[in-house]
Design a protein that fits this description.
Layout (H helix, E strand, L loop, with lengths): L2 E5 L6 H10 L3 E5 L7 H8 L19 E4 L8 H9 L3 E3 H8 L4 E6 L4 H14 L5 E3 L11 E2 L5 E5 L21 E4 L13 H13 L6 E5 L3 H10 L4 E5 L3 E5 L2 E6 L2 E4 L5 H16 L4 H8 L10 E6 L2 E6 L4 H14 L4 E8 L2 H4 L1 H4 L11 E6 L1 H6 L7 H8 L5 E3 L2 H13 L5 E6 L17
Parallel strand pairs: 1-2, 1-3, 3-4, 5-8, 5-9, 6-8, 9-10, 10-11, 16-20, 17-18, 17-20, 18-19
Antiparallel strand pairs: 6-7, 12-13, 13-14, 15-16
Helix pairs in contact: 1-2, 5-8, 5-9, 6-7, 8-9
């Protein structure tokens, strides 16, 4: 039995890959300095949770078939050094995924935003049409037990990511996949800690496009000027097809979407989600599924976890959460809610959680991004700043960067909860509370928020 060891097994994708390989019959082990839920519970259920946190180089020997190296493991990690000294093959997870999918047709969804949604929509359509496929996606998807599947299927659907693969191999993950079909969903500056200027960030996608095989089908967002610039610069020799938002109208908060000659009521809302839907349909048509069957299949897709996901509904109050954290994502999500619920009072709450969003050098990028809400609140945690080694932020300076005079800035969760509670209770209109973050708002349980005293 082949043995594989995971360094930093607690990562969102790492632990899912470990479980998928165990199901394939590999003997899997792993280590990490900290493992939190849902990874902790998932690994415990699979019998893969390390007995204690920490790094243990004695776990490494030449008998290992491979080591899979997680993104947050540092260059001086003792297990990594032991593996290098023992001559064990070391892979980042995208490198390993490519190794096991060399002979498959690979669909890669790349871009700054919309990746998870488009990937999960493709998966949903394929599943509803009875196709056998593997996948890797960065969220929990209704109808799928895991977020990574590996089997003998001839097709794999991959959510691409421009973040570096590992401390050993610092190229973006997307550069390892060599896709048979790809989507470019949009380009907006992110990951300032790795890409200090926008042009450096943009160049990662140029490298990706330049690495595609001639004739590779590329479905690109025809409504994004930066993606169009990318196609103009690097699209030569590829089969580049733009996609745009299909016609739609709203009925009781849900869109009726027309694709081709077919119209369907769908379960997700927002112009950007309908645009994402068109991308997924175009890919699935390329994979041989008729357009009408694609639209029929996607009609009951309810979304990936934390992508405009309903948290709570009670008379007078709707609470949704979204993974939005970059400026372009905030704007798109706010526009989606405003479009679907024009009569509600829209209260938007955004947590500065990523390295970029907590970095004052990047904060000016958020100017105007919260203007789509009736009431806006921005939250940051001093603990998060400390964990990322960043200097303290001044609440007044944060407010200035967002460019909204009535913006409320909170820096502790008690203050945040009371602020949001007050905003949702003092208005006579129905309230839509939108929570946007890649974090947890310091663990606030928003189900306890009530619209009535």
């Amino acid at each position: 039995m082949k043995k594989i060891h995971f360094i930093a097994i607690g990562g969102a994708i790492m632990h899912q890959l470990a479980i998928a390989l165990q199901k394939q019959g590999y003997e899997v082990s792993g280590s990490d300095d900290e493992i939190n839920d849902p990874a902790k519970t998932n690994l415990l259920k699979a019998g893969l949770l390390p007995p204690q946190n920490g790094w243990y180089p004695e776990k490494i020997s030449s008998s290992l078939f491979a080591v899979v190296l997680g993104m947050h493991a540092r260059a001086d990690n003792p297990e990594l050094i032991a593996a290098q000294n023992a001559g064990v093959p070391i892979y980042s997870f995208p490198q390993y995924i490519y190794e096991v999918s060399r002979n498959k047709k690979r669909v890669v969804v790349a871009g700054s935003h919309g990746k998870t949604t488009i990937t999960s929509m493709i998966m949903h359509i394929l599943q509803k049409n009875g196709m056998d496929f593997d996948y890797l996606v960065g969220a929990r998807i209704p109808g799928f037990e895991q977020s990574v599947r590996l089997s003998d299927a001839p097709l794999i659907i991959l959510e691409g990511d421009e973040y570096p693969a590992s401390v050993v191999e610092k190229k973006p993950k997307i550069l390892f996949y060599n896709p048979s079909i790809t989507v470019i969903s949009g380009i907006a500056w992110d990951h300032i800690n790795v890409f200090p200027t926008y042009e450096i960030y943009f160049d990662q996608f140029v490298q990706y496009m330049n690495g595609l095989q001639p004739g590779t089908p590329v479905f690109w967002n025809g409504e994004d000027d930066e993606v169009k610039r990318l196609i103009d610069e690097a699209g030569a020799g590829k089969s580049c097809v733009p996609y745009t938002t299909p016609a739609f109208t709203y009925e009781d908060g849900y869109p009726i979407v027309k694709v081709g000659t077919e119209s369907r009521k769908v379960s997700v809302f927002g112009r950007h989600n309908i645009l994402n839907m068109q991308a997924a349909i175009d890919v699935c048509k390329e994979l041989g599924i008729p357009e009408a069957d694609c639209l029929s299949a996607i009609a009951d897709f309810t979304g990936a976890a934390r992508r405009l996901e309903k948290v709570k509904e009670e008379p007078g109050l709707l609470i949704y959460r979204d993974f939005a954290h970059a400026p372009s994502k905030l704007k798109a999500t706010l526009n989606a809610v405003r479009e679907a619920y024009p009569e509600h009072l829209l209260v938007a709450c955004f947590e500065l959680h990523t390295f970029s969003s907590l970095n004052e050098k990047f904060l000016s990028e958020y100017s105007g991004s919260m203007n789509g809400a009736d009431q806006s609140v921005v939250f940051f945690s001093h603990h998060a700043l400390a964990l990322k080694g960043l200097p303290e932020l001044d609440k007044n300076e944060v407010k200035k960067h967002f460019g909204r005079q009535d913006l409320i800035v909170a820096d502790n969760k008690e203050e945040l909860f009371e602020t949001v509670l007050s905003l949702t209770r003092k208005n006579a209109k129905n309230v839509f509370l939108l929570l946007m973050s890649s974090g947890t708002f310091d663990g606030i349980d928003w189900n306890t928020l009530n619209s009535q005293p």
